[in-house]
Task: inverse folding
């Protein structure tokens, strides 16, 4: 351990690589759609030919702090930088909107630091026990852990267990789109080739979480005269919150490290499970989603601690637990670093050097974060109407950078409308995200369990323990639903009918697939359909007459929502027809003229500057080929 520290400090090249990598990782995390995976892919060609350990330190340090930068857009704009960051949006963005952006960022920073350091401690402690620990978590445990995560989050859906279960099942169905990982059978895609690889997770998360927040940011402030929110807190307030909730930090950090160790479960689930634990352990669970600092602390602590857990299996067994670690593993192999037991037997000093890289990367990220926090929070002073087009453009750009397909704009429009309807009618979106994240790992684990043990895998000791926990979470959800029934809940007939049609159609289509391919989608469709129908029945029976008549819906709010939905569809259409550039700059210019009422000169100058930034960053800076739209292609042919 000390040998690795001394080796790290004795090589200036390692320190230089770390100091350069941390700002790159923070920036990658703060740009929706980029994240650690794309950052590694972009950086790797520039590292070939360097000393393998220096290059590995650069990549690991950059990847380790990506989730420290993720809270910036999540809290300030309501746009998650990646799937795990969506959990921070639920309470972080409401805090920012009421003038507590500094506090939320401080809490995210301190929790990320604490989680990262606890993850390193777990990594160091687990090194000798990595192999037996991983072997103890077989396919049955991975499958049931995925179901536990979904049921746990669903049971905490503001007393609406049925809606949470339906949302989780919908997430599993969306995850099932494309080629199934077992037989290669194409599901729910038809001849749409862009769906054969499945729905891009970042695109789906941005649509379901970011777009409804962007719409609310404007529609919810239509009548406010001064739209800028004065800041009432400081970074130090958030740091003190982390100290006050230190036991929560420790628990969620350990949870994140444990989830990170499990191969195939996906480290992306850690933040959602941690958020669910924070709600479950709180004395006021109904207040989550309105701006509770614990809702920021828990997912951020787990987000960073899972990196330490993920490195246990990635370095010592060569078995990555998440998609990000898969890319990192491939980069290590490209550099000539061979993960496996030899990392302990023959390259122990290099292994400890990588462990210390995590420590110093988290410490350096704090200094960089603090230096830029005061500048970043100025975005909260920008009027919501003026911020809307740029935030929407950032979300659309993030979805394209993740999928690199123009059809992502269609998906983001459809799922964005769905997310808007779920938010408006109080359907929990967190179970949907977790179902989307865990769908494929759960399906693979279920197939492996049945192939090896048959249905008897449910009778294994570990499986029985997890089944008891799943049943307990559902019982807790039923009790909470009875005691916390929301009398202001609205049926949302259009949304319910849409979900019934989706679940029924998926169930019918699944009948044509082989048994292994249809098993999980058919079960999700059946459970989801039953949950939606039962929820509609109970909601209609218990809601008051005033709510049934619709008088609780304010006309002004409805008009604001509708107008912003039209602009969302307009921005997506501009991106499809004219591409990101010049489509988004032109749509932004039109919005500034029609809605913000800027002068023609100001609007044109802003659009031109946006066009130059797109070209400079994406084409010349990152060297990415941009989609230029269907219209120029049609005219050219």
Result:
């Amino acid at each position: 351990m000390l040998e690795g520290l001394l080796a790290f400090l004795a090589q200036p090249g390692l320190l230089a690589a770390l100091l350069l990598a941390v700002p790159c990782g923070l920036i990658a995390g703060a740009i929706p759609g980029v994240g650690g995976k794309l950052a590694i892919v972009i950086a790797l060609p520039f590292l070939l030919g360097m000393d393998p350990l220096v290059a590995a330190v650069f990549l690991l340090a950059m990847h380790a702090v990506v989730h420290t930068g993720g809270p910036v857009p999540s809290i300030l704009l309501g746009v998650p930088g990646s799937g795990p960051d969506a959990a921070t949006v639920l309470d972080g963005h409401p805090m920012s909107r009421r003038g507590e952006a500094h506090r939320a960022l401080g809490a995210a920073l301190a929790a990320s630091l604490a989680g990262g350091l606890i993850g390193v401690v777990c990594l160091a402690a687990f090194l000798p026990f990595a192999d037996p620990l991983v072997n103890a978590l077989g396919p049955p445990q991975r499958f049931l852990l995925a179901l536990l995560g979904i049921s746990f989050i669903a049971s905490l859906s503001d007393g609406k267990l049925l809606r949470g279960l339906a949302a989780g099942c919908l997430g599993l169905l969306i995850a099932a789109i494309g080629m199934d990982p077992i037989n290669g059978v194409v599901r729910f895609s038809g001849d749409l080739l862009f769906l054969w690889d499945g729905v891009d997770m970042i695109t789906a998360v941005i649509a379901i979480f970011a777009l409804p927040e962007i719409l609310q940011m404007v529609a919810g402030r239509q009548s406010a005269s001064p739209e800028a929110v004065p800041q009432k807190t400081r970074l130090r307030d958030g740091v003190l919150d982390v100290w006050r909730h230190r036991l929560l930090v420790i628990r969620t950090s350990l949870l994140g490290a444990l989830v990170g160790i499990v191969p195939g479960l996906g480290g992306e689930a850690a933040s959602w499970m941690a958020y669910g634990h924070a709600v479950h352990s709180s004395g006021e669970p109904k207040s989550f989603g309105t701006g509770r600092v614990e809702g920021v602390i828990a997912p951020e602590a787990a987000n960073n601690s899972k990196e330490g857990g993920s490195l246990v299996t990635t370095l010592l067994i060569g078995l990555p637990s998440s998609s990000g670690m898969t890319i990192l593993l491939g980069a290590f192999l490209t550099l000539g670093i061979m993960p496996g037991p030899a990392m302990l037997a023959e390259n122990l000093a290099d292994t400890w050097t990588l462990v210390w890289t995590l420590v110093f990367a988290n410490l350096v990220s704090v200094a960089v974060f603090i230096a830029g926090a005061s500048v970043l929070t100025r975005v909260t002073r920008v009027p919501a109407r003026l911020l809307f087009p740029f935030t929407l453009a950032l979300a659309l750009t993030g979805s394209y950078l993740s999928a690199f397909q123009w059809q992502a704009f269609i998906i983001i429009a459809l799922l964005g409308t769905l997310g808007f309807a779920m938010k408006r009618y109080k359907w929990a979106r967190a179970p949907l995200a977790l179902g989307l994240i865990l769908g494929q790992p759960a399906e693979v684990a279920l197939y492996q369990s049945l192939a090896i043990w048959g249905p008897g895998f449910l009778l294994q000791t570990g499986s029985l323990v997890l089944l008891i926990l799943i049943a307990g979470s559902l019982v807790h959800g039923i009790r909470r639903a009875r005691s916390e029934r929301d009398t202001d809940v609205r049926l949302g007939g259009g949304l319910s009918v849409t979900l019934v049609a989706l679940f029924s159609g998926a169930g019918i289509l699944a009948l044509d697939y082989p048994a292994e391919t249809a098993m999980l989608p058919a079960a999700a469709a059946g459970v989801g359909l039953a949950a939606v129908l039962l929820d509609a029945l109970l909601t209609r029976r218990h809601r008051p007459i005033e709510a049934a008549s619709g008088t609780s819906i304010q006309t002004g709010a409805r008009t604001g929502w509708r107008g912003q939905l039209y602009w969302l569809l307009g921005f997506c259409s501009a991106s499809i027809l004219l591409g990101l550039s010049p489509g988004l700059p032109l749509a932004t210019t039109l919005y500034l003229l029609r809605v913000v009422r800027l002068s023609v000169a100001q609007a044109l100058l802003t659009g031109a500057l946006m066009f130059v930034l797109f070209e400079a960053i994406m084409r010349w800076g990152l060297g990415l080929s941009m989609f230029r739209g269907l219209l120029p292609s049609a005219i050219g042919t």
